[in-house]
Amino acid sequence: MRKVATNVKELVSMVERGELRLPEMQRRYVWRAARVRDLLDSLYRGYPSGSVLVWETDQQQPTRDLQVEQGTSPFEGHKLLLDGQQRLTSLSAILRGQPIKVRGRKRDIDVLFNLEHPEGLSDFTEVDSDEEPTSGATDNGDEPPDDEDEEDGEDALMERLNRLTFVVSSNRLAQLPNWVSVTKVFKTTSDSELLQAAGVTSFADPRYELYAGRLRKLRAIADYPYTMHVLPRDLSYEEVAEIFVRVNSLGVKLRGSDLALAQITARWPNSLKLLEDFQDECEEKWMTLDLGLLVRSMVVFATDQSRFERVRNTHIDKLKAGWEKAKNGPRFAINFLRTNIGIEDESLLSSPLFFIAIAYLSQKRDEQLSADEEKKLRYWLYVANARGRYSRGSTETLLDADLATLRDGGTVDKLIETVRQQFGRLDFDAADFTGKGAYSPLFSLVFLSLKTNGAKDWQTGLGLSLTHSGRYHYIQYHHIYPKSLLKERYDTREINEIANMAFISGGTNRRISNKEPVDYLPGVITQRGEGALTIQGIPIEPELWKLENYRVFLERRRKFLADTVNRFAESVLA
User: Fold this and answer.
1) Can you tell me the distance from the alpha carbon of 98 to that of 68, in angstroms, rounded to the nearest whole number?
2) Fewer Cβ close by (within 10 Å): the C or N end of the chain?
3) pTM above 0.85, yes or no
């Protein structure tokens, strides 16, 4: 295996010229903008950033473009990128100012550079996963990062941002003189325009040397050295797929589904396009299904179990037959979740594995459910989802146990009993809500039960839905007692409890901002009546809207939420 010394500028040029393509086994681009930000931060500081692995081949192979604009080249398809796609796509987008094509849509990634960043190490937000989360639900009650909290003060937010060297661009920051677009730096040959925009108009300005030096250091990212490992031409596609799997297994860079997909595409050319076409169909009709979920679905219908390691020893004809069933099952699951369960968005599922379980049951029953079985399946989904059936422990083991139940003729009653055995009970009490926040599996059941009860936005009167058009109408949760008013007196988990949340639109949330409940709730009653509060379980006694009575408020509302979700789940069995 040859080693070739190269750098970022040359690798980006190879992408632009079309000399680097992707083999079919490669997944799509999945990095979030925050991950691109963190890559730039590492390169700016000269930290290690791995290497690049390519395969030179004269064989005709199924290939795909990187998800940035690429030209044509007589060497097209001769160098296939096995490791480094996410980094090179990101760097090509930033340095060339090219949008990234994601499922047919172009998405700009713009990162800002802080000319006033602190010397030495600055604050850094590491992103550990390449994948988009399929659901925010976990069982620890954790909240999103603080910089996503619109209730925090603007001064505090700016103080945090100014400790960073790179940030994902926003309109507000882009207007500030010390923040400059990284893409603009690379596309502008002279510093004078950038320095003047930053307020530096003469050489005598003490900031001139500092800013100019930092711009030179930023542009030096183009010269950042990479080692390109080149696999020999005489390898077969199957051997290269094996190398791809082993390299990524050792580095823990890819999920099990990505490694399984590499093994599938090595034996089944153009299979990736079948998966992606079906993924696009699902996204167009309802929601985004992760490609890994579709691979797992194929494995389930081919082998009656969910473990990806079975792919290696499964005949390709069996996988092809499994895929035909795997398309019908998820279609049923999507329709059932949307119309029978009321789940409009995948974020309301504590685990995407519920898709698999419902899809598998539908095909075992030839998509013919009795009225009784349909009710019990709804009940199982509500309770198992809220309990986090597939969100803790060995999730594959738990899913395989449920698949085995259905494969062997077991009923939905048996699935319900399994949940009872796992958690000790099926109902919920007030204690279950203590310390549980928006990332708890309980969150979606609260949303669904309040929505069914008729809860509406406090200003527009719109019912709860995750599909409203326009960001000001999009339903989000609102801290009834603002975090900024509580953080000096109460623990974070206590502040961020579901019991301190109401569902209202984004526009209403912004208007309330960080006002104390005693100041804004009377206005809600005046405009919408007491029922606007009581239907969401918010006590109407003004005494309980005062900060000193926050814990009494939580106790009252936890009990309301427990009673509400119990009634809601049990009502489907009536």
Assistant:
1) 6
2) C
3) no
